[in-house]
Each structure stands twice: as structure tokens, then as C-alpha cells.
Amino acid sequence: MSVNSTDYRRAVSGGVTGAAVAGRVQLDRACREALTDGARAPRVAVLGAGAGGICATIQLRLAGFGSVTVFEKSDGVGGTWRDNTYPGAACDVPSHLYSFSFASKPDWSRKFAPQPEILEYFESLVDEYDIGDAFRFRTEVTDATWDERAGRWILGLRDAEGSRTREEFDVVVSALGQLNRPHVPDIPGLDTFEGTVFHSARWDHGHDLRGERVGVVGIGASAIQFVPRVAESARSLVLFQRSANYVAPRKDRPYPAWMRSLFTRVPVLQRLYRESIYWRLEARFNIMRRDSRLGRVLQQQFAKQLRPLTRRGLTEEALIPDYPPGCKRILIADDWYPTLLAPHVEVVTDGVERVTPTGVVTADGTERHLDTIIFGTGFRSTEFLSPVAVTGRDGVGLDDVWRDGARAYLGLAVPGFPNFFMLYGPNTNLGHNSILFMIEQQVGYLVQLLQQEVVRGARAADVRTAAAGRFDDEVQAAAAGTVWAEGCSSWYKTEDGRITNNWTGHTTSYRRRLARPDLSDWELLGA
Ligand code: NAP
Fold first, then answer.
1. Residue ranges lining ligand 1, Cβ < 6 Å
2. Which CATH class is domain 190-245+289-375?
3. Dihedral pair phi/psi, residue 243, rounded to 5°
4. For residue 211, what pLDDT is reported?
């Protein structure tokens, strides 16, 4: 696809909810001129064909970076929306905001789009932006090693048949995200279970749950969506719940035909609607502050509203969280409490002790006999890139740098790993707004940094240690003032309590920081 600066401007100017545009058009022009004058366009490798990988590929191509290859282990695009096909899967961020600002979809079917529609949206972008040739499916990146002499990355690749090859790239963009590797707890006896076992992110659609005795271990954002569906067909359902959740009303609704048609015909109305959602969600960051008054009020109201359910056979422990709202993700559902009250559903709050060939035994010694166990136990979120062995300058491994927890400058880069960037990296997850917003900011920043490299004739950019240290200190100081630092377990932090996953402020402040690279924070190698 041939794109000029005008197309580029149109593509990046996504309004308040898109990436910042200031100064980008001039830089874009200078980069295109440099490339026409014989400057070498970098070869870019993107790891992962989910939302981040798709966004990066589109924006890099629009900016004139023709050589982009996306390595994807599975055989299609969509990432988390391809993996998570459990019944009831849907996004808990309204669809008009859970989409890219530069690729709006005016005709979302409902407020919270179901998984197939979201997957279809991401798939449609591949055709719309003509980037299909960038993808190398069924190919896993096993390792990435910086070659100081050549100033390039050497990637180790393994295809589905197990054949291994190596290829060189100037830039590596990891778009593996935080929630791609299912976590199944190491419960004694699990391998002896004679029934069916699967994780929510690897749903066994070939297995019929009708009439079965089903147990669900782990009740979080995924379980809250699939449990009501499973309850419709299972004979009995036991929910092994370690902590109660805050579950707020979802108020989902289909969008009427007239609204979809209006948004299609008058795009500005859709943009205004999208922005109204953004600001409404952004205001919720106040709940994420430690000791927030709003949080305390919510906590009290929540307990008051749920207490009457205890008269209908549910315990307080099963219903009322013992931590402030926001410490874990606040969930939304309209069918959660009715499901808990169903006569064939039991909530068990005694810890799971072991699995037997026929069921699950809890700490009080009771065994529940089961046909199927479903794990809704989330993902190995704090390990970030660990399946890929990344080795930077002087042979230093990323795993060693991150021994005490992952950290990265702006969530994007680590000193000693030149031209190695991460999307949805450390400290960029949100508990209150759309992650696609964050990804767009990161991609906008990354494109500008690569454009600066081309314009200045640099081989690579390495973030300065001092800049990365300052950023990390600031983020960790801010993290101490958030509700996530309070006493609840969550996937936002390591076992030692370091908050490695969440952005610790408003998304507006993240957008401001990423509007334009501050080149004094970067060492431009060979410039
Ligand atoms: P999750 O929210 O992390 O929930 C995992 C659950 O498993 C928790 O209830 C946890 O208990 C429990 N658990 C973990 N280890 C356990 C063990 N050893 N024994 C017993 N229970 C255990 O995972 P998830 O539901 O898959 O969701 C993860 C994230 O994915 C969400 O926070 C969200 O960001 C994303 N997601 C988003 C959507 C969406 O609509 N946008 C939907 C689904 C998921 P504790 O709470 O006690 O630790």
C-alpha cells in the first residue's frame, strides 16, 4: 500500500482517544525524504498477531516502514480474542472504545461486543489496511539475541513442525501482551483426575457439559462470564472461590439499527460517543487511589446491598470482598448473583487442597465428586516475555535484569536492549479504561522514535539507564499510593508485592508522556 503524508495524518489523528499527533507530520515528511535519499528502512520483527501486533503493523506501514514481519505461533490473528472462546466471552469495556481510534467501527452490535464480533473486527483490519503479507503464522520466536557488531537482533524461530531457523532484524517489537499464557495452579493429584480438565482460555468445545457435575476453580473476570452459561447446562456446579469479587451491574444492550446507521452516516457523532465513554471510564481512576473516599463509600454500599442475600443461603465470605474496590479488577455482570442463588450451584470458600481421581477435596476434608474441572485461574501475567529468551548488550539476559520484577521505560524499553520494544509491557495495564488506548500511545511513540532514527542516521536507540531508573522510581512511588498496594492478591503484582503490571495514573498522563519521544532519554547508536 502506498501512503503519503496526508493519508498518514488522517490515519494517526484519532482525536482525544487516539495517539497524540503534535509534530508528527513534519517528522513523517523528513523520514520519507530520508528514505527516498537512500537511508535504509529498518527491518522490523513484531512478535504476536494480537491487537498490539496489528496496530504496530498498520501504523509502521502507514509511516513508510515497508519491511514488517509479524511472527505468530497460532494460525490466525486476534491474540487474546482468538484464544478466549469460552461461552459468554465478551469485552467488559464498551465496544466503541475497545477499538482503534483510527479504525472506528460505527456498527457495533451492542454495548459490550461478544468475542466473535471483536475477533472479526481485528481480522477485518488486516484486509482494510492490506497487511496480510506481513504475517508469518505457525511460527514461534524462541529467542532474540542482540549482535553488537552488526547492530541487529538475531531471532530464533521454530515452525509448527519443529524446524528451527534464524533471521536478522533491526527492530524487535514484542506484542505478546500480559495475558497470553494460562495459569493452572499446581494442585496435588490433578494429574490423577479421571474426568475432563481444561482452562478457560483453552475451552474444550468438543466436550459437552450437559448433565455433568462441573467444578470451577478460580472465580475472576473470565469465570464471571462463563459460569452463568455453564450453569444453564450442567447438572450441578461447584464454584471454588478463593476471594469474592466486586460485581457491578453490566447494563448491556443491543444498539438499535437507527443508532448504528446514524454513527455510519455521521462519524463525528460516533467519535463524540466514544469520547464520552472514555471520559466516564477515566473518572473511575479515582477509585484506584489508596483510601479513596469514593472507594470507601462503594465498599460500604456493596456490603449493604449484598448482605440480604446471606438470608438465602450464601455466606458473607462468598459474597462480600474483604478488600477495597479496585484492588482486583471490578467485574460487571447482570446474571452473577442469580446464578449463585440457583439451587444446583454451590459456592465453596474453603481452599482447594487436592484433586482425587473423582473430584476435588477442600481444606475441611470434604470431597465434591465431579465430571469436569474448569480452571478460571487467569494467566502468568508477571512473567511477561519469559517464554522468549532475550539477550541484550554484553550478553545480559532480560530475565536477569527482571529478576526482582519486570520494569521498562514507559512500559516500552529496557536499557541494554537497543531497538527492542514492548507493547502492553510492564506497568501499562489498566483497571479502569481501554487497553487499546494505551497500545495506540505506545505505537505512536515507537513510530516516531524509529522515524527519528532514520532521519538522524542512527542504527538503533537504547534508552539511558538514568532515564529508565527515574521512570521506574516514579511509577513505583505512585504505585504505593494505589489501591493495588493494599492487601489483596492479584495478577497486577509479583509475589513480593511489586506492582509490575499496572499504569499508576490517569491514561491522560500516559498519553502526554508518550506524545513525542524525549531524545535526551535515548542514546542513538551510530547517529
Ligand atoms: P483472574 O481475574 O486473575 O482470576 C483468577 C482467579 O483464579 C481468581 O479468582 C484467583 O483467586 C483464582 N486463583 C488463582 N490461583 C488460584 C489457586 N491456586 N487456587 C484457587 N484459586 C486461584 O483471571 P481471569 O478471570 O482469567 O482474568 C484475567 C484478566 O483477563 C482480567 O483481569 C482482565 O484484565 C482480563 N479479562 C478481561 C475480560 C474483559 O471482558 N475485558 C474478560 C476476561 C478476562 P484470588 O482472587 O483469590 O487470587
1. 91-93, 179, 185, 200, 217-223, 242-243, 328-329, 352, 376-379, 489, 491
2. alpha beta
3. -135, 145
4. 97
